[in-house]
Design goal:
The protein is an alpha/beta fold. The chain folds into three domains: about 80 residues, Orthogonal Bundle (Arc Repressor Mutant, subunit A); about 120 residues, Rossmann fold (3-Layer(aba) Sandwich); about 120 residues, Rossmann fold (3-Layer(aba) Sandwich), CATH 3.40.50.2300. Helix content is about 40%, strand content about 20%. The chain is built from 13 helices and 14 strands. The strands form three sheets. Strands 4-3-5-6-7-13 form a six-stranded parallel β-sheet. Helix 1 packs across helix 2, helix 2 crosses helix 4 and helix 5 packs parallel to helix 13. The longest helix is centred in the first third of the chain and has 14 residues. The chain is elongated and about 80 Å long. GO terms for molecular function: DNA binding; DNA-binding transcription factor activity. This is GntR family transcriptional regulator. InterPro entries: Peripla_BP_I (IPR028082), Tscrpt_reg_HTH_GntR (IPR000524), WH-like_DNA-bd_sf (IPR036388), WH_DNA-bd_sf (IPR036390).
């Protein structure tokens, strides 16, 4: 490792570089010159302190920086090793989502585009399963430079996420209580859904029945159910909550409110052979907008946040590391389905 120590000592002469940057640049330089190869062990913290005279925390910061980029990995009680020789990577990102719903696909595509090719993004799905969530977090902890997480809304999840260093975690989509130093870009469901329903009151009242499809054992936000129940009670609307849409059960003069997309596609399919006209014979309201809802059947009215905006702001947090604590409001997108 003498060549590495020599390189660090050479970089000491370059004034603009901090001590931790000198170590990082020296390791990258030796990888690019092929003097360090994948699997090679780096000097221990104590060895680096003795050879280059920097503080332990400076050495650790440099190694952790390289870990975040996926270039270095640490093995329990065995030290630090070269994990990847791709030195162009700026950051390895773990993106933990509920599932690959269409709106989360929109988020991912915008997130990927905004970050660019020098960021490596690995995507994981917990499917609203606490055991799966805990297993994924346990497997990926300490292996990424940044964690972008759509959490399950549970007190236990809040405690799990607090094990991640605050400046390496960004909470997205669902809001959970965390200490104030943690960053988040989330949405609020109950008040925002209720407010958008209020705007739609004249259209809603033209239907004889208002049905919300809500599965209690799913990842559906409870705030939407609370908003629906409050709204229909306030305005004395004939309403019902059902777990799922049953094939061929579509009826006239009914407004259907969907959170998930699978039942939405089924009811639209059922309307065709009956020659029902959307917005006249029956109505559709959906949560979470996407490109398909914009064009199918002349457009589906939605209550939704701008997932592309959430993705862009999330990417900016990763690039600039400026703390952010933001709740993105839902908006009403009126189309022809009511």
């Amino acid at each position: 490792m003498e060549v590495l120590f020599d390189k660090i000592n050479d970089l000491k002469l370059i004034t603009p570089l901090t001590k931790h940057e000198q170590i990082v640049n020296a390791i990258i330089s030796k990888i690019e010159s092929k003097e360090l190869k994948k699997g090679d062990r780096l000097p221990s913290i104590n060895k680096m302190v003795a050879e280059v005279g920097f503080a332990r925390k400076t050495i650790v910061k440099a190694y952790e920086d390289l870990k975040g980029r996926g270039i270095v990995e640490s093995k329990n009680f065995k030290g630090y090793y070269i994990a990847d020789v791709n030195t162009k990577t700026k950051l390895r990102v773990a993106l933990l989502l509920f599932a690959f719903h269409s709106f989360q696909e929109d988020f991912y595509n915008s997130f990927r585009e905004e970050l660019g090719k020098k960021y490596i993004i690995n995507v994981f799905f917990h499917h609203n399963n606490l055991d799966v969530f805990k297993d994924i977090v346990a497997r990926i902890s300490g292996r990424y430079g940044m964690y972008v997480v759509a959490p399950i809304q549970s007190p236990e999840v809040s405690l799990i996420l607090q094990k991640i260093q605050y400046d390496k975690l960004l909470v997205i989509d669902r809001h959970i209580p965390l200490p104030q130093e943690y960053s988040y870009i989330t949405q609020e469901f109950e008040d925002s859904t209720y407010n958008q329903l209020e705007k739609l009151l004249p259209q809603i009242k033209k239907y004889k029945k208002f049905i919300l499809f809500f599965k209690g054992d799913s990842d559906y936000p409870i705030g939407i159910l609370n908003a629906f129940n409050k709204f229909v009670k306030t305005h004395n609307i004939n309403a019902k909550v059902e777990e799922r849409y049953i094939k061929d059960s579509i009826s006239k003069n009914t407004l259907y409110f969907f959170i998930g997309d699978s039942s939405l596609w089924k009811i639209l399919k059922d309307s065709k052979p009956k020659n029902y006209t959307i917005g006249e014979d029956f109505g559709i309201l959906a949560h979470n907008d996407n490109g398909i809802k914009e064009i199918i059947f002349g457009g589906i009215t939605t209550i939704s946040i701008d997932f592309k905006k959430m993705a862009q702001e999330s990417a900016n947090y990763l690039k600039f590391k400026e703390p952010i604590r933001k709740i993105i409001p839902s908006k009403l997108i009126q189309r022809n389905s009511l």
